Amino acid sequence: MARTILKDEDWSRIKPLLPVNKSRAGRPPKSHRLMLEGICWILRTGAPWRDLPAEFGPWQSVYYRLREWSKKGVWEQIWAVLKKRIRQRITYD
Prior knowledge:
With 93 residues, this protein is mainly alpha-helical. It has helices at residues 8-14, 32-45, 59-71, 74-89.
């Protein structure tokens, strides 16, 4: 399993920002948290989308979720929460 980056506390702040996970015909959608972990993995590693580990689901699904969240302005809200949490974790001497 790939290392995850989101702590439960971070997830509890991000979860309310996400749209309802609608089920289309076919397979049920992957969880938002798993998709967000996949996006964070890509951002952390700088790897191409096609190199996303299979445990996050198909890379196309993760990329599609990022695109949809970006179009709706959700990604900017998520990013703002994550940046705020990172700044809180940094200690300055």
